[in-house]
Amino acid sequence: MSTNHPETPPVTLQSQLNRLLSSLGSDDAASVHGVFGAWSSLVGDAVAAHVQPVKLNGSVLLVEVDDPHWATEMKFLEASLCSKLSHLTTTPVTSLEVRVKRR
Known about the structure:
Layout: H1 13-23, H2 29-37, H3 39-43, H4 45-48, E1 51-57, E2 60-65, H5 68-86, E3 95-100
Parallel strand pairs: 2-3
Antiparallel strand pairs: 1-2
């Protein structure tokens, strides 16, 4: 006797990754990849050498800088950078949280 069960749709890696990121309070995988993957082209090589994105948490991007000077610089660039980043994310990036990397 054969039982007909509707096929369960396949689970994709993308959907699992999105679920994991959501449980961590982060944006979806496409947004995270857009921000982290395009970082150097968004900020330029000079800034990227000293400033790294760490976490995208909803509308806030946490960045880590290697010197306090760059923390100040990122505050000057915040509005422009948030605008550029918002084109790559599903949730607009409205602010940066900057922390200085410990040596």
